[in-house]
Design brief:
The complex is a heterodimer of chains A (about 50) and B (about 300). Chain A is built from two helices and no strands. With about 50 residues, chain A is mostly helical. Chain A has one domain. The radius of gyration of chain A is 18 Å and the shape is elongated. Chain A starts with a helix and ends in an 11-residue tail after the last helix. The relative contact order of chain A is 0.08. Chain B has about 300 residues and is mostly helical. Helix content of chain B is about 50%, strand content about 5%. The two termini of chain B are about 35 Å apart. Classes of the chains: A mainly alpha (about 50), B mainly alpha (about 300). At the A-B interface, helix 1 and helix 2 of A face helix 3, helix 4, helix 10 and helix 11 of B.
Chain lengths: ~50, ~300
């Protein structure tokens, strides 16, 4: 893969990733992850 | 002399892996209390497969968070922007280097494989077929079934519930021992069985979970061709001694598969190479003129 193509793909994907992160923050998905992660998911770990 | 340096470098990697485990799980007192860490940092995804129900974890597992979002963890099924953003950025920067250096369960498998007395295998029969299983796990257990369950209005993180050995080892077993022993049932023992099977196979072959089943590795592998951390191969220097292939923990040939989605950038091939033809670098790749064509 040529370096210029790699730079192009990387740039597009970094912008997309950053946009996704910002959208996630905008749609309040951060607090949802926090809420999920701070409760013991008994089902997830095979208990309950 | 060279072998001594190689062994020393390998211990360095194991030390980095141990440090990564402690950085992602620093609140060790929760292991004894049977509670889990509740801090605000748990809103942030960690790069490796580190269960958010691990008592000491200060971050969220990206695969757990992905399923939670798809299966209605955000009250209704939603496009998981936040988690995918993390995965994209981690993947673009580091690719599967995360598997080789930061993943707690990868570290456990590396330690298990070092136990002697068992005949070590480089690959299994039907290896190529088996390696595709992780994409099936990603498609079915992480995305498909949780999404379907969301339409029924229930939250079922299938991968976490039925397969994830990291959750069992770092979350399920410690919590079952300290506080929840009366609540263990079929699901718990099923997952203990899965964990035991993976660890037993891990005595014979290096990193079986990473090779065949890990959906996070499947995602990061997609970025290996363009990630900033990459394996450079200079064909002009190579003397075809085959040492790199023998030491590769993922059972690939680094000379021809340096761009492979299977390469975890652990650097063992690089440390073994007598002519420095293989080097793990961070940054943009050199143009392909001085390299052999890579096969997946």
């Amino acid at each position: 893969m040529k370096r210029s193509i790699q730079i192009g793909i990387l740039t597009v994907l970094v912008v997309t990733g950053t946009a996704f992160l910002l959208c996630g923050i905008f749609f309040n998905q951060v607090s949802s992850v926090l809420n999920k992660a701070t409760h013991i998911c008994l089902e997830c770990i095979g208990i309950g | 002399m060279a072998k001594a340096k190689r062994v020393k470098d390998e211990w360095k990697r194991l030390t980095v892996q141990a440090a990564a485990f402690l950085l992602q799980n620093p609140k060790l007192h929760h292991f004894f209390l049977g509670t889990i860490e509740q801090g605000k940092t748990k809103a942030v995804c960690v790069p490796g497969l580190n269960c958010y129900s691990c008592p000491a974890a200060i971050g969220a597992c990206p695969i757990g968070s992905l399923q939670a979002s798809l299966s209605g963890g955000y009250k209704k099924p939603a496009f998981p922007f936040y988690v995918l953003g993390f995965l994209l950025l981690f993947g673009l920067a580091l690719g599967r280097w995360i598997c080789g250096w930061l993943c707690p369960f990868g570290w456990v498998q590396d330690l298990i494989y070092r136990i002697p007395f068992f005949k070590k295998l480089r690959t299994f029969p039907y290896e190529r077929f088996l390696r595709w299983l992780k994409y099936v796990v990603l498609g079915v257990l992480v995305i498909g079934l949780p999404l379907l369950s969301a339409f029924k209005g229930v939250l079922v993180p299938y991968f976490c519930k039925y397969l994830c050995p990291s959750g069992t080892l770092f979350g399920g077993i410690p919590l079952a021992i300290t506080k929840y022993s009366s609540q263990t049932g079929f699901a718990f023992w099923w997952k203990v069985g899965v964990l035991a099977a993976i660890l037993l196979v891990g005595l014979l072959i290096s990193r079986p979970f990473c090779r065949y089943l890990c959906p996070l590795g499947a995602i990061y592998g997609l970025f290996n061709r363009i990630a900033l951390v990459h394996l450079d191969y200079a064909s002009g220097k190579c003397v075809d001694c085959g040492k790199c292939e023998k030491v590769c923990p993922m059972g690939i040939d680094p000379k021809t598969q340096f761009n492979s989605a299977e390469c975890i950038r652990c650097g063992r091939c690089s440390r073994t190479c007598p002519t420095d033809s293989l080097i793990v670098r961070f940054g943009l790749r050199m143009n392909d003129d001085s390299h052999k064509k890579s096969t997946i």
